[in-house]
């Protein structure tokens, strides 16, 4: 998802703002603002009154109607009009992490509220996509037909088919990453909106249980997603989700899961939307969790 790359710019901008004496000739505050504006440009659904990217309009207002579920909202993927749940959830996890770690820097540049709004636009959608404890909608639209037709989302005529995972059609990676996203976001909102943070955490816990108890990669259940965001496995998402849930709750059950992990990925050279072993282990090591 292109917004994952924008997250990299977001983190780089905040890091360089922290070390602005060295990089004083560059306006990284402006880069920070523009990186957050990108998320507003990718919004799907009914846009809010405070929408800053004025050339965007309402779109995807009937998403989920074929399944009788309200799935309006969330983010489009890169230049597409498809909503891919797997990379979207990872983006929300990472955006939440950056907001947790660099909240004071965001606040100093009057961007904290915009960062939280960007997170909430994603989490509101993910909560709706988690329509039942063991049901999660993971894609809206069809990548093939979308790529064959260049249209603004406001004018799109391509299919808006919904795809989901459930007990009979599992996807532990998709459910685990969504659990991580909601757990991380709950920390970001804890001091700003405790009620919303609690709601996110409830969904995160249910999704972790769903992922833990129903193994498998999600593209075996949502075949159309495999052409674009095929997952190489689900164990890293479970570690990642457990790490964030432990950080959000301090509950021993998640610590135990981390400590009993049978697969920690071995030597890794990548941290991405498909490979979170490094991220999960980094958090675990920070807490001095004995990973076997």
Automatic annotation (TrEMBL):
It comes from Prunus mume (Japanese apricot). Residues 28-279 form the Glycoside hydrolase family domain. It catalyses: Endohydrolysis of (1->4)-beta-D-glucosidic linkages in cellulose, lichenin and cereal beta-D-glucans. Keywords: Carbohydrate metabolism, Cellulose degradation, Glycosidase, Hydrolase, Polysaccharide degradation, Signal. Belongs to the glycosyl hydrolase 9 (cellulase E) family. PANTHER family: ENDO-1,4-BETA-GLUCANASE (PTHR22298). Pfam families: Glyco_hydro_9. The gene is LOC103331438. Residues 1-24 form the signal peptide. The keyword Hydrolase applies. This is cellulase. InterPro entries: 6-hairpin_glycosidase_sf, 6hp_glycosidase-like_sf, Glyco_hydro_9. The keyword Lyase does not apply. Its EC number is 3.2.1.4.
């Amino acid at each position: 998802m292109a917004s994952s790359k924008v997250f990299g710019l977001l983190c780089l901008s905040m890091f360089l703002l922290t070390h602005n004496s060295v990089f004083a000739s560059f306006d990284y505050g402006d880069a920070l603002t523009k990186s957050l504006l990108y998320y507003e440009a990718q919004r799907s659904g009914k846009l809010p009154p405070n929408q800053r990217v004025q050339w965007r309009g309402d779109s995807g207002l009937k998403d989920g109607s074929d399944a009788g579920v309200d799935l309006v909202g969330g983010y489009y993927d890169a230049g597409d009009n498809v909503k891919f749940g797997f990379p979207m959830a990872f983006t929300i996890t990472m955006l939440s992490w950056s907001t947790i770690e660099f909240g004071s820097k965001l606040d100093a540049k009057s961007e904290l509220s915009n960062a939280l709004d960007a997170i909430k636009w994603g989490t509101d959608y993910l909560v709706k996509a988690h329509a039942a404890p063991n049901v999660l909608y993971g894609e809206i639209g069809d990548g093939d037909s979308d790529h064959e037709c260049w249209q603004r989302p406001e004018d799109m005529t391509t299919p808006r088919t919904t795809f989901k995972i459930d007990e009979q059609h599992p996807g532990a990676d998709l459910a685990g990453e969504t659990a991580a996203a909601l757990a991380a976001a709950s920390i970001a909102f804890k001091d700003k909106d405790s009620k919303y943070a609690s709601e996110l955490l409830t969904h995160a816990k249910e999704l972790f249980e769903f992922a833990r108890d129903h193994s498998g990669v999600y593209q075996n259940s949502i075949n159309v997603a495999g052409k674009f965001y095929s997952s190489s496995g689900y164990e890293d998402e479970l570690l990642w989700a457990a790490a964030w849930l432990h950080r959000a709750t301090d509950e021993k059950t998640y610590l135990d899961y981390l400590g009993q992990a049978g697969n920690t990925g071995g030597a890794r050279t990548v941290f991405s939307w498909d490979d979170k072993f490094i991220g999960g282990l980094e958090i675990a090591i920070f807490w001095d969790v004995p990973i076997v």
